[in-house]
Amino acid sequence: MSPADAARHKSLILTLCCLAQFMVILDVSIVNVALPSIRGDLGFSATGLQWVVNAYTLAFAGFLLLGGRAADLIGRREVFAGGLLLFALASLFGGIAQTSGQLIAARSLQGLGGAVVAPATLSILTTTFTEGGERNKALGLWGAMGGVGGATGALLGGILTQTLSWRWILLINVPIGIVAALLGLRIVMRGKRDAGAARSFDLSGALTVTAGLVVLTYGIVETDVHGWGSSRTLITIALGLALLATFTLIEGRLASAPLVPLRIFRNRPVTAANIVVFCIGASAFAMWYFMSLYLQQVKGFDPIEAGLAFLPMTGTLIITSQIASRLTGRVGAGVVLTIGMVLLALGMLGLSRVSADGSYAAQVLFPSIVTAGGLGCAFVSVTIAATTGIRGPEAGLASGLVNTFRQVGGSIGLALLATVATQRTEDVAGTVSRGVALSDGFQRAFLVGAAFAAVGAVISATTLARAGHRAAAEAQAGAEGTA
Questions:
Q1: Coil vs helix vs strand at 398
Q2: Is the pTM here over 0.70, yes or no?
């Protein structure tokens, strides 16, 4: 293969991986604008509605590690194509669902498909592109799909919901998923597999962590009904934590081929980057959820108007992602990540001022642009920070961890923030108008989201920024020395 053909082939692979990642992340946020319509059609309760989002993200998070290991052991190409086909099939089932239970089950299956696809795409990129500038550019574009997919989902979801039906936010994945799977089989090269490698997928680990996350999230959600201090809440949360502790025991002592070899957390930058990505998920996923509800339930926007309201965020994300990708090579991923987390915290703090009588331009537009700028910087740089120096068979593990912590942060963050918002709304209900009560709840949620982002900024600044800046300076000095 000539250099020109090799470059074109790499470009095709990058485009396909970015498309797949875009579609997987899109389906986290595309449902947000459609939530009022879904609730009306299928009869969800106010607190139960968040399971349309969390059923997807929890299955995604719980099986991402399994997906990453499958990509390493079975083959990246085969796992990539199979995951896309599963994703398309689950989208079809969700699109024709007639009950809330059927939709939640389909969203869970969709999350399983996404959990297979996402780490496979990142593993394909890390093995296709050489570490350094070439890989940073590829990972930068891939990471940007997380932010762009989230912001675009609101616009596309609004258009589909109002012009066709909320069902088309799921049905549209069917042809795209099938075509992408066929292209993957054609253009992604078959990876080399170690014939002596263990074929254990550690299913017990995957099931335990998924069950633990579901039970923990359920315990948080149910505090809206039973309260934080009730025996039911405490027992449920304790059971979730016990399952997660069991998962740690399985990985550290019992599994012959653990999903998460705990030694990877001895790498301080990897650990710090995954904690920061947890904070990103806790802030960003909830932000899209609550902004969609605020614009429709309080400001009276229709689905398309709500989707268009997110358009400035999409443009900002695209621009800042490109800037962040270039800046990361100069000053290091940690510095760019810290800037992104600070902007995210400031933007969420600005959104905490939303009110029933405030205007979109004054209370939503500017802080949402600041938030999008932070996400553009953070999504790109945290992916690079969490995978730098990871080679060989652990590429799938590293990619799985990045996505897992983001989805876990999104699920737990949404459950916590939704509980905070609902409790505040119920506290003031009856003394103020419905719009004011809802706005008060959303204010509390955005404020807690800002706190998550601030914690991420501190961790990034103290752990990743110095190390990243030093590594970038050493790399630049080495390049100048060989020039």
A1: helix
A2: yes
